[in-house]
Design a protein that fits this description.
Oligomer: single chain
Strand order of the largest sheet: 1-2
Structural class: mainly alpha
Number of helices: 12
Distance between the termini: 23 Å
Mean pLDDT: 85
Number of strands: 2
Length: 315
């Protein structure tokens, strides 16, 4: 494994504030709301240019010799490269208009997402080497992201907020509860923990760009668009992940009914990640939501702990 770290530190000089959608007393000063955000002061984005062992061969059922757990994570991984490219392209649309602080963060975010894409493309090739067909998963992501074609670019930001929120709360579960990856192939587990660390780290960036981009919108419009798109996209994304995991299990010889039953038990009963994170997801529907209202920076340090000695000074 090759490690290279670039630390970008951005100072938040103003107090933490949720950038509320629906607080009439503050909504009049939209530009101040957009500038403050709720990202913690002195928060750093660290570009961890990890390249995982390309010679390592995972087992077909790389997660605990369990076809159900393996199918779920394979379904998620296969969806990531196209989604992350969409996030990068979306933020590029707004980059020229951003204040310097946000522009620097977008640059770091872009590098993080490029690295995630590279490693998941490599991971997905291993999945295909075991005979799985994952091309339909990529096509499904393309179709989902096309839902806002012809809409203002701010709608793409709202999609990105919804998917980044989903990624952040899954990442929080993976880092806070090591049992989710217990028994997994060690290299594959490292890929997921590394990715989870950076998802938590940059979870507020897209929302801060959204506040800036929609600074001239009414509070009501901002909340309505964000919430409706969050409901639509999360439903479609989660539904597609379930559908595609079932498809992968059927490629392992399970009939559809058995695959559906086993996957439902995995997601909602034991270990039950979806059950545990439902109310965390629902926070995105609240007026005044901001991803950093749940401060889980301690998990970033936990994820970084094996690499702490390699961190380079800030640029």
């Amino acid at each position: 494994m090759r490690n290279r770290f670039l630390t970008i530190v951005v100072t938040r000089n103003s107090p933490i504030d949720p950038g509320s959608d629906l607080e009439p007393g503050r909504a009049d000063d939209k530009r101040q709301i957009a500038a403050r955000g709720a990202t913690p002061e002195e928060h750093a984005l660290i570009v961890r240019d990890q390249r995982f062992d390309r010679q390592h061969k995972t087992a077909r059922w790389w997660h605990s010799n369990d076809p159900v757990a393996t199918a779920w994570y394979n379904s998620v991984s296969a969806s990531l490269p196209r989604g992350e490219a969409f996030f990068i392209d979306t933020l590029k649309t707004f980059r020229a208009d951003l204040p310097p602080r946000l522009a620097a963060e977008v640059k770091a975010f872009t590098r993080q997402e490029i690295n995630h894409t590279r490693e998941h493309v490599a991971f997905n090739r291993l999945v295909q080497d075991h005979g799985y067909d994952v091309e339909s998963i990529d096509r499904g992501i393309h179709d989902m992201l096309a839902l806002t074609e012809g809409r203002p670019p701010e709608f793409n930001l709202a999609i990105t907020i919804a998917l980044e929120h989903f990624a952040a709360i899954i990442s929080r579960q993976l880092l806070a509860h090591p049992e989710y990856l217990a028994g997994a192939d060690p290299v594959a587990a490292d890929v997921w923990r590394w990715h989870a660390t950076e998802e938590i780290e940059h979870k507020g960036l897209v929302y801060d760009v959204w506040l800036h981009a929609t600074r001239d919108w009414s509070a009501w419009k901002r909340w309505k668009v964000r919430s409706l798109i969050a409901l639509l996209i999360t439903r479609k994304y989660f539904g597609n992940r379930v559908r595609d995991a079932i498809g992968l299990l059927m490629q392992d010889g399970f009939d559809r009914r058995t695959a559906k039953r086993k996957l439902r038990a995995f997601l909602w009963w034991k270990p039950g990640m979806m059950r545990r994170m439902f109310f965390e997801w629902a926070a995105i529907l609240k007026p005044g939501f901001h991803p950093w209202q749940h401060d889980d920076r301690a998990l970033i340090g936990l994820g970084d702990s094996p690499y702490a000695a390699a961190v380079m000074p800030a640029e």
